[in-house]
Amino acid sequence: MPGGRGMRGGYLTEEEKANQPKVTKELLKRVFSYLLPYWKQLLLALTCILVSSAFRLMPTILTGRIIDEGLIGRNMDILVKLIVLLLLVTIGAEMIGVLESYLNSWISQHITYDMRNKMYDHLQRMSQKFFTTNNQGDIITRMTSDIAGVQSTISGTFSSILSNSITLIVAVVAMYRKNWILATIGMVVVPLFTIPTRKAGKTRWELTREAQAVNDEVNGLLNETLSVSGQLLVKLFGREDYEYKKYEEANGKMIKLNIRESMAGRWFRVVLSTLASIGPMALYLVGGILMMKYDADLTVGDVTVLVSLLGRMYGPVNSLLNIQVEWIRSMAMFTRIFEYYDMPVEIKNCDNPIIPKEAYGNVRFENVDFSYDGSRQILKNVSFELKSGNSVAIVGPSGSGKSTMVNLIPRLYDVTGGSVKFDGVDVRQLDLNYLRNNVGVVTQETYLFNGTIRDNLLYAKQDATEEEMIEALKKANIYDFVESQENGLDTMVGNRGLKLSGGEKQRISIARILLRDPALLIFDEATSALDSISESKIQEAIDPLIESRTSILIAHRLSTILSADEILVVKDGEIVERGVHEQLVKAGGVYTELYETQFSKALQQEKERMDKE
Ligand code: ATP
């Protein structure tokens, strides 16, 4: 593409050169398998391209006849006829062009529609591990830019190769039919000028890339400092001036580069365009000599046609010189997308998944080992049992593996050794939907979607009635708050729920889980300190739940711990102690230490607060 589309110039970057994909038969087959469903439309588009490219050159060729037969031959009749024909051909070419653009866009959009859906579906099924190890930006880039790139490849590259080749072939044939000497001069002149132009383009393209890098830097800066949390940090540390200076500097760098970029190769282009007019001059001169000295079979119209055909060859030649680059780039894009498609779905249903009639919520860990990366062991030989109707609290120092333990139950990850059983069946044998429907998790970091409280509740149960929602909110001890809001259930929670306090968000997420009514409730208590009023509100919400439901609590507060039937103490991925509070305190082990450092302090504060009140 002459000029290129922004960053996608006609040159490969060092990185692109190093990462050139291997174009194998399999890859091509795979690419074409996405085109195949649209073969009828493709065929039609192809025909349109052929016809319109040929038609577009017709006016140039007709001009010769207008000059020779109409003007020089002084024949009004032919002149009018040719002009009408010219008009018809032009209109025809444009009409076909419209159809061609429509088909082009239709086909490429449909192909990318298929690819995007497939990608999204695949990504949704990827395991939690995929999302924790891959950068979110990269994932989104594949979904958006890479697929958009594929679309422009299909609509741009393929059709430009075709239409440019046709234009070129038609032009060359037409030129040779007029006069072989002049045509040969043309053949020599065209590459002579396109190649240096490409060189100048490259300098400019490199500057564009540099400008783009600075632009990215500026964007990163903006993203960081103008985000909610970024601004908070800037304000709290009083770094406004510092950030401003940083921005001003980057901004200055950017404008300098932009100016350089727009001027790059400008002088070179002046020289080149002057030189480029040498082509037509040569044709006029040689044409004149042939006509006058050698009495060649050449007319004024012929020379005019040859000159204008020559002018129309630069563009296609330039484009075709870019093809290799475009091709490599397109293949790289397809390869990157296929790489994602080929990532195995790690956590999925087994061949004949079991869907039990009823869920009770019994959980059993049998000698469970687990590692995230295959090398560092996070859980070691963990065994415990939770009977339906009971509750267990997991306590332990930060990073000991508590969240990891519970993540194994709804199969966010799979064990690396031993097994986790739900109602006596290995979770890997159960239907994933069934399992996740019956295991409700209130995570440490509550995530609410940007929408209303109602939207967030309905996420758990699409057909929940107003009464059900109200009941869940009441149970979660948040109904009073919701009711006091002007819009009630239709109150917007803001971006990621940021308009609500941490405690409110937690209670809404509890209500959300309650609507689901899972057989097993897992509550990962937030470590972040909430104020004691929020805490006691959450406590009031979960206490009755623990009483009435099978639950696992990752607990940081003594009151939560005390309400559980059994306490498991985890340290470095192992259950080191288990029992009830009194027993464990007496034992003088890890629990006693935790109790003395964490829980009793919290208890003390709680007492002081009660005394004050
Ligand atoms: P806290 O009380 O602070 O929430 P925790 O006991 O719940 O801690 P886990 O979150 O289970 O601890 O983490 C246990 C260990 O596993 C930690 O050392 C942590 O660094 C590591 N870990 C947690 N999540 C991942 C992950 N997605 N990939 C790799 N390692 C992880």
Kindly describe this structure.
With 613 residues, this protein is an alpha/beta fold. It has a six-stranded mixed sheet with strand order 6-7-8-3-9-10. Strands 2-1-4-5 form a four-stranded antiparallel sheet, with no helix packed on it. The termini are far apart. The N terminus is likely disordered. Adenosine-5'-triphosphate (ATP) binds next to α15.
Give the tally of structural domains: 3
Q: Could you report the average pLDDT, rounded to the nearest whole number?
A: 85
- Could you give a short account of the major beta sheet? 6 strands, mixed
Quick one: overall form? Answer: elongated
CATH architecture of the largest domain: Up-down Bundle
**Computed structural class:** alpha/beta
Share in β-strands: 5-15%
Any idea of the CATH class of the largest domain?
Mainly Alpha
- What Rg is obtained from the alpha carbons, in whole angstroms? 36 Å
Q: Could you estimate the helical fraction of the residues in percent?
A: 55-70%
Quote the distance from N terminus to C terminus.
76 Å
Low-pLDDT regions: 1-8
Q: What's the CATH topology name of the largest domain?
A: ABC transporter transmembrane region fold
> Within the largest sheet, what's the order of strands?
6-7-8-3-9-10
Report the bound ligands by name, code or SMILES: adenosine-5'-triphosphate
CATH homologous superfamily annotation of the largest domain: ABC transporter type 1, transmembrane domain
Number of helices: 24
Q: Tally the beta strands.
A: 10
